[in-house]
């Protein structure tokens, strides 16, 4: 584990910083001037007309799912408790893809500050793309496999979710049941091949029997981001970051003593920096991320790229390996800073539309020795642009188009690859 030594050093420093920062923040709170406290109390009393609950329908189209639709509902400050948020989302597609998730956050579980978060998720994906392992897999090797997956993850955040130095302690349990692909697509015969035909060794291995991955994890975070539209309520969630940085280290162990069939270690580093210009209406975002694993990692949990928020111009799972690195650069430009479209008497508002363009590159490695020798070689680029805006209660909705050398943009592809999603990618 020598290649992780630098991450362990940073982890020790961040672990030491969290309790120190906590004690400093508690002292600051105790020494708060009465006039300031009264000012804050009076500022909290006026209630906004904006609704605390919102539902967002969405549609999307992708080569793996076909045309799909879904919705997400979020309720902030549930039952009048500031910081108690819950959300529910569901997706359905023409290929019988199904996904349901619930996320609950309970503030002040011990005393003022620490939070409990509970996340549960279910997925049924009859067809997922698989290309093999490594950074140089050919798109001609594509085939399909399916899975059903259940996931549960309780998490405690301390000292506070909005503290500059904070930690997240969690236990995650995932049960996966992979299965042979059943896709029948006359327009893409390669993708229609089942994994049992194209990668018979993997399909016939005990790994393909599936099972549980479970174990503890810890996030160590330093966050001094300034947000243009702070949500408040002790939340770390950001709407439109304009300056500052975010540094995160994550360590995770999965093993039999925690109910896992597979035993492995995972370490992740995620660094972001935001630069605001022209009254913070123009923001440049730089990001770097690295993941390294040791042990028996099931193929579905290997670091991978494609779709989502990582190498958006490639299909889901396009590259898989034991380790990965990626870099992102994104330019965000507000186009109507004072725009506000009130709906239902101001209960819901659409505000601050902004354009963005991005370039990103990433690659995977077969081992940590490759990571050390080839960290600056053979990256796969992805690029794109889109439109985002904010709706009540402080939710970012994004439309984006993403491409890569595998999928050159054409007029037809610009229309068909429209993605509608919620939240910033980073």
Explain the overall architecture.
- This protein has 426 residues and is mainly beta.
- It contains six helices and 20 strands.
- A hairpin with an 8-residue loop joins β4 (98-106) and β5 (115-130).
- The protein has an 18-stranded antiparallel β-sheet that branches. A two-stranded antiparallel ribbon has the order 13-14.
- It is globular.
- The chain has one domain (2-30, 49-422): membrane protein fhac: a member of the omp85/tpsb transporter family (Porin), CATH 2.40.160.
- It has helices spanning 5-30, 34-44, 195-198, 200-203, 368-374, 411-416; strands at 53-62, 66-75, 85-93, 98-106, 115-130, 143-158, 165-180, 211-223, 226-227, 241-254, 264-277, 282-295, 304-305, 319-320, 323-334, 340-343, 348-365, 380-391, 395-403, 419-422.
- The model is unreliable at 1-46 and 411-420 (pLDDT under 50).
């Amino acid at each position: 584990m020598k290649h992780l030594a630098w991450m362990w050093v940073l982890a020790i420093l961040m672990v030491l910083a969290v309790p120190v920062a906590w004690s400093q923040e508690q002292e600051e709170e105790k020494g708060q001037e009465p006039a300031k406290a009264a000012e804050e109390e009076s500022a909290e009393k006026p209630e906004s007309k904006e609704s605390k609950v919102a539902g967002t329908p969405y549609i999307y189209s992708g080569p793996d799912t076909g045309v799909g639709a879904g919705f997400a509902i979020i309720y902030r400050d549930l039952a009048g408790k500031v910081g108690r948020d819950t959300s529910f989302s569901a997706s359905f597609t023409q290929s019988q893809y199904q996904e349901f998730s619930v996320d609950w956050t309970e503030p002040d579980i011990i005393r003022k500050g620490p939070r409990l978060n509970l996340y549960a998720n279910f997925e049924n994906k009859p067809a997922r793309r698989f290309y093999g392992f490594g950074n140089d897999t050919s798109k001609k090797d594509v085939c399909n496999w399916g899975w059903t997956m259940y996931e549960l993850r309780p998490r405690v955040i301390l000292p506070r979710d909005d503290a500059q130095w904070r930690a997240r302690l969690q236990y995650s349990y995932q049960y996966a049941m992979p299965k042979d692909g059943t896709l029948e697509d006359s327009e893409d015969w390669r993708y229609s091949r089942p994994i049992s035909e194209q990668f018979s060794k993997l399909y016939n291995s005990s790994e393909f029997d599936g099972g549980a991955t479970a174990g503890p994890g810890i996030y160590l975070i330093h966050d001094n981001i300034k947000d243009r539209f702070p949500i408040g309520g002790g939340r770390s969630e950001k709407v439109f970051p304009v300056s500052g940085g975010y540094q995160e280290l994550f360590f995770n162990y999965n093993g039999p003593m925690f109910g896992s069939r597979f035993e492995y270690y995972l370490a992740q580093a995620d660094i972001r920096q935001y630069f605001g210009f022209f009254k913070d209406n123009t923001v440049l975002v730089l990001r770097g991320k690295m993941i390294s694993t040791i042990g028996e990692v099931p193929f579905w949990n290997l670091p991978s790229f494609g779709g989502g928020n990582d190498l958006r111009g490639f299909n889901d799972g396009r590259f898989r390996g034991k380790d990965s690195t990626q870099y992102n650069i994104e330019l965000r430009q507000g186009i109507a800073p004072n725009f506000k479209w009130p709906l239902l008497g101001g209960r819901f508002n659409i505000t601050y539309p902004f354009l963005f363009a991005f370039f990103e590159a990433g690659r995977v490695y077969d081992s940590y020795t490759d990571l050390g020798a080839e960290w600056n070689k053979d990256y796969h680029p992805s690029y794109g642009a889109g439109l985002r805006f904010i709706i009540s209660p402080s939710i970012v909705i994004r439309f984006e188009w993403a491409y890569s050398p595998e999928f050159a943009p054409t007029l037809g592809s610009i229309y068909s690859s429209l993605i509608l999603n919620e939240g910033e990618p980073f």
